[in-house]
Specification:
Low-confidence stretches: none
Shape: globular
Mean pLDDT: 94
CATH class of the largest domain: Alpha Beta
Strand content: 5-15%
CATH topology of the largest domain: Rossmann fold
CATH superfamily of the largest domain: NAD(P)-binding Rossmann-like Domain
Distance between the termini: 35 Å
């Protein structure tokens, strides 16, 4: 059991739990005492994680399905209710990648990423929210956002769009579900997983993590990137009673770096009585706004 955090009696669904962050999260929740529904589209991976959890004395059940449509979401919730009699925590982690620059992104690639990440988060959260409201015992929705959704990232049109949408949904649902005592937060993870192993600069470090070797201090602290296991404690904390007052937040964790992300808000403004002309905008922009442009992209520092 995770020191100081007890999830005994709680039941969680973790989508995309066959590998990476989902797998690490499922194991961490089980170690903290929760019963876990392990979802993935690969049956052998689901069975492996279920077996691991049972091997440490935990409770687990599998839900083999591809996250995206309503039927898959209902299957995950129904598995929790039929096997463990309740549902307390829904963690929407399932995802995929179809990285392409804008002009090379096909409709099929875009739709695949949106279906799994954005629609899958929506359908799973909706199914859980309906249960939470009917049961009247509160609950936890924990969504997986991304640095790409916060900052943008070259070659990740669909992924960045989906993850930005997930962050927005977390803020919206936190308001909608507050009266039901359901908290909604988005994790912004930064970990060396299969979703980062194709980035050339991170390749050698991904190999180090795969071999179980410790990652360099500057990577864990300055860049704030680590392993999937480094991210999992945040999901355990947000699932617990100690996080009852936290909702509508985007919270980052990578390596040794825990962070609270600032939501978009109006940064600067100017007034022009009677309305603006294009010329007035041009003059005011260069005088007032030009030096305040926001930066874009993920800062990888000195890797």
């Amino acid at each position: 059991m995770t020191a100081g955090i007890d999830l005994g009696g709680k039941v969680a669904v973790v989508t995309g739990a066959g590998r990476g962050i989902g797998r690490a999260t499922a194991l961490a929740l089980a170690n903290a005492g929760a019963a876990v529904v392990v979802n993935d589209l690969a049956g052998e991976m689901v069975e492996e994680v279920v077996t691991l959890i049972r091997g440490i004395g935990g409770k687990a059940a599998g839900a083999v399905c591809a996250i995206g449509d309503s039927a898959a979401a209902e299957q995950c919730v129904d598995t929790a209710l039929s096997r463990f009699g309740r549902l307390d925590i829904m963690i929407t982690n399932a995802g995929n990648l179809r990285d392409r620059v804008l002009w090379n992104t096909s409709d099929k690639d875009f739709d695949s990423v949106i279906m799994t990440h954005l629609r899958g988060t929506f359908t799973c959260a909706r199914a859980a929210a309906r249960h939470f409201r009917a049961a009247g015992e509160g609950g936890r929705l924990i969504l997986m956002a991304s640095l790409a959704g916060q900052r943008g990232n070259f070659g990740q049109t669909a992924y960045a769009a989906a993850k930005a949408g997930i962050a927005a949904m977390a803020r919206t649902w936190a308001m909608e579900l507050a009266k039901a005592n359901v908290t909604v937060n988005a994790i912004v993870p930064n970990a060396l997983t299969r979703m980062t192993e194709t980035i050339p600069a991170l390749g050698p470090y991904a190999a180090m993590a795969e071999r179980g070797e410790p990652l360099p201090e500057h990577l864990r602290s300055n860049i704030g990137i680590g392993t999937a296991e480094d991210v999992a404690p945040l999901a355990v904390f947000l699932s617990s009673d100690r996080a009852a007052g936290i909702s509508g937040q985007c919270i980052g964790l990578g390596g040794d770096r825990l962070s609270l992300w600032q939501h978009p808000q109006e940064k600067q403004f100017a007034l022009h009585r009677g309305g603006w002309t294009a010329e007035a905008i041009a003059e005011t922009w260069s005088a007032t706004f030009q030096q305040s442009h926001e930066s874009i992209g993920i800062d990888m520092g000195e890797i």
